Amino acid sequence: MSRLKLGLPSKGRLQGQCIAWFHDRGIAIERSGAEREYAGTVSGVDGVDLVLLSASEIPRELAAGRIHLGITGQDLVHETIPGWEGRVSQLAALGFGRADLVIAVPSIWVDVESVEDLDAVAADFRARHGLRLRVATKYHHLVRDFLRKRGVADYRIVDSQGATEGTVKNLTAELIADITSTGETLRANHLRVLEDGLILASEAALFAARAAAWGPEERETLATLCARMGLSEPAL
Ligand SMILES: Nc1ncnc2c1ncn2[C@@H]1O[C@H](COP(=O)(O)OP(=O)(O)OP(=O)(O)O)[C@@H](O)[C@H]1O
Ligand SMILES: O=P(O)(O)OC[C@H]1O[C@H](OP(=O)(O)OP(=O)(O)O)[C@H](O)[C@@H]1O
């Protein structure tokens, strides 16, 4: 029998919340093997194989159709899959893993309150230093789209895959775009979110891959899963 591949985060807070979400719907996800072994089983529904992946790899696996279903953050799907709506279908937003992708500037930039103000800062920075403002982020596509729509063009992206809030202090960027939830990391690093600097309010969501091999058996398993989860079946 062809089996449906379900991709879940391999560790961290998202994994625990995913397992709890399925548990509440009568589906048991159990890690198997050694504590650190990335293997597990799904029971309570037939025909599902578990694939444990880094949250940031799940969008790529969905886009390629190597997994049929996957749970990860909307921010990662929107960032990683160009034209994501054509390649995956969001079955449900799950209400956990909430975080905001925001643009934040040094708190001491008292005159910079909005994205519009950034344009003036960028022009000033260019005039004084002959350089473009540097925005540190791992969300290159989402940040570019957001700033383009708001008419900010005189900047450059500096890639930062972690500890992004530290880049301003380390003088590798003038401002940042990153995920925040409590805001503590921003505050601790003397950064302030622009008043209209929310790029995306993200949460974890269940996605189905359009490119996956949806044979009759996988479709039947999907129908069973959707019924169990109280979701309508996606058109794939
Ligand atoms: N406070 C938070 N900090 C970071 N990510 C958060 C937070 N709250 C929710 N998230 C979400 O969790 C997801 C990232 O999860 P995680 O940190 O496990 O992924 P990752 O960094 O790709 O993991 P890995 O280190 O395995 O590659 C993103 O979708 C993000 O929006
Ligand atoms: O608003 P807060 O509650 O302070 O949370 C936000 C921070 O948490 C995340 O980092 P994480 O610890 O996941 O590590 P990362 O730098 O590798 O993303 C995120 O990148 C922020 O730095």
TrEMBL record:
The keyword Zinc-finger does not apply. The keyword Glycosyltransferase applies. One of its GO terms (cellular component) is cytoplasm. It comes from the Bacteria. It comes from Paroceanicella profunda. Catalyzes the condensation of ATP and 5-phosphoribose 1-diphosphate to form N'-(5'-phosphoribosyl)-ATP (PR-ATP). Has a crucial role in the pathway because the rate of histidine biosynthesis seems to be controlled primarily by regulation of HisG enzymatic activity. One of its GO terms (biological process) is L-histidine biosynthetic process. Keywords: Amino-acid biosynthesis, Glycosyltransferase, Histidine biosynthesis, Plasmid, Transferase. This is ATP phosphoribosyltransferase. It catalyses: 1-(5-phospho-beta-D-ribosyl)-ATP + diphosphate = 5-phospho-alpha-D-ribose 1-diphosphate + ATP. Pathway: Amino-acid biosynthesis; L-histidine biosynthesis; L-histidine from 5-phospho-alpha-D-ribose 1-diphosphate: step 1/9. Its EC number is 2.4.2.17. GO terms for molecular function: ATP phosphoribosyltransferase activity. InterPro entries: ATP_PRibTrfase_cat, ATP_PRibTrfase_HisG. Residues 55-226 form the ATP phosphoribosyltransferase catalytic domain.
